What we know:
Blueprint: E1 2-9, E2 17-24, E3 30-35, E4 39-44, E5 48-58, E6 64-69, E7 87-92, E8 97-107, E9 112-117, E10 129-136
Antiparallel strand pairs: 1-2, 1-10, 3-4, 4-9, 5-8, 5-10, 6-7, 6-9
Amino acid sequence: MAVDTGNGYGSTNTKIRRFSSTNKNVGTGITYADSASLGGSFTINETGVYAITYSDWDSSGSGTISITVNDTAPTAAGVNTYAQGGRVASRDSNIGGSVSVTWVGNLNAGDVVRAHTSATFSGTDYQTNFTVAKVSN
């Protein structure tokens, strides 16, 4: 599953990124849902090993970009500081511009993966993208 073109954030889950375009959707292992209130979410339908990459544009130079699984703090401003579960990969943006984070690991059917930021990321084109791919059972 590959999506791109950043489309703001959820109105309730204010730190969860939304995406406008689905580039590739192969198989039934992952379902993407975009909600104006909850942001974008990738539901894992098949247990296995997944590779995830998230890239976005931070114009502020002071944001944090993260990949979360079963996130319990979708409105937390600093995903690098919250203690609630879910963050599997994170990176601070020290100079602004394009920032990426990658993670590979086990996910279970029913897990929900999200692009979670400090809400300073504002990319609106193909450079803002999120890819989830099942690589092994």
